[in-house]
Amino acid sequence: MSDNDDIPFNRDFPLAPGVVDEVVPGVRRVLCNNPSPFTFTGTVSYIVGKGNVAIIDPGPVDEAHTQALLDAVRGETVTHILVTHTHNDHSPGVARIKAATGATVYAEGQHRASRPAYVSETRATESGGDWNFRPDRILKDGDVVEGDGWRLEVIATPGHTANHIAFAWPERKLMFVGDHVMGWSTSIVAPPDGSMVDYMASLERLALRDEQLYFSGHGPEIPDAVRFVKFLIRHRKAREASILHRLAKGEADIPTIVRASYIGIDPRLMGAAGYSVLAHLEDLVARDVVATDGDPTIEGIYRLVAPLA
């Protein structure tokens, strides 16, 4: 959702699909041709190192993109395939890369929801989870993955998905952040796939780290990254405040809150905005700030527990 002007978004990303771009020494990126309102110009895959390399997020099932990645590493050995999270625009391309290279696949785990589905939920989120994904090696927070001239630390960043991780390169003060932080737009947090409580905690954690250059799953790199993360934290808190402001006028359903809070939004993103509002409402219900009858679901009617002071 890119309706707020308080975040210094950068939508200048001229990289063409299939082109190998060495953005900094030891980091190459290749764009997949899968543009959409959710993926911006497409999924960005990264190649780390030279000689013996890792590929981060091979992307969707897309033969042209897979071939571009394999061409980019011709004459080199792919030792690691690293996955930040298991959405269909990030991990399904793993199988073809693994078959061609024999590399070991590393990830936090299989796709899973951030919480059990409520019986009352009649609609699933449109998140597009890759439920068939199985890593060879399970990574946990603090693990180190290293190769020829590179060393990456695993940072647990749940929120966009339950199994989302980032890969920090502390010596280079850079990090591969998947979809947790993006320079062109805020990330979608859609329950039950995602969790706003987890997402905010993960942002707060990144804000305390030293890495200042982020490489995202979509869009351009993010310089001055810690400052950008703090913008995102403020934006989410402002979003919560706008939801509470609307509820102070009386109870409302989620489409009504979206219309009040997301002025000028791309109509194609209205559904995603609704799930993002739901993620905030789940948190507010858990904190007894907002109430609803039954479970907090996308169809629910929401009201303040007590008037705002």
Shape: elongated
Structural class, from secondary structure content?
Answer: alpha+beta
Largest sheet: 7 strands, mixed
Q: Return the CATH topology of the largest domain.
A: Metallo-beta-lactamase, Chain A
Order of helices and strands: EEEEHEHEEEEEEHEEHEHHEE
Rg from alpha-carbon coordinates: 20 Å
Keywords:
Glyoxylase-like metal-dependent hydrolase (Beta-lactamase superfamily II); six-stranded mixed β-sheet; Metallo-beta-lactamase, Chain A; alpha+beta; 309 residues; single chain; Arc Repressor Mutant, subunit A; seven-stranded mixed β-sheet; LACTB2_WH; WH-like_DNA-bd_sf; 25% helix
Protein model, in words:
It comes from Afipia massiliensis. This is Glyoxylase-like metal-dependent hydrolase (Beta-lactamase superfamily II). InterPro entries: LACTB2_WH, Metallo-B-lactamas, RibonucZ/Hydroxyglut_hydro, Sec-metab_biosynth-thioest, WH-like_DNA-bd_sf. One of its GO terms (molecular function) is hydrolase activity. Keywords: Hydrolase. The protein is of the alpha+beta class and 309 residues long. The protein has two domains: 215 residues, Ribonuclease Z/Hydroxyacylglutathione hydrolase-like (Metallo-beta-lactamase, Chain A), CATH 3.60.15.10; 69 residues, Winged helix-like DNA-binding domain superfamily/Winged helix DNA-binding domain (Arc Repressor Mutant, subunit A). It contains six helices and 16 strands. The strands form three sheets. The chain has a seven-stranded mixed sheet with strand order 1-2-3-4-5-6-7, covered by helices on one side. It has a six-stranded mixed sheet with strand order 8-9-10-11-12-13, with no helix packed on it. It has a three-stranded antiparallel sheet with strand order 14-16-15. α3 links the parallel β11 and β12. α3 packs antiparallel against α4, α4 packs across α5 and α5 packs across α6. The longest helix is centred in the C-terminal third of the chain and has 23 residues. The protein is elongated, with a radius of gyration of 20 Å.
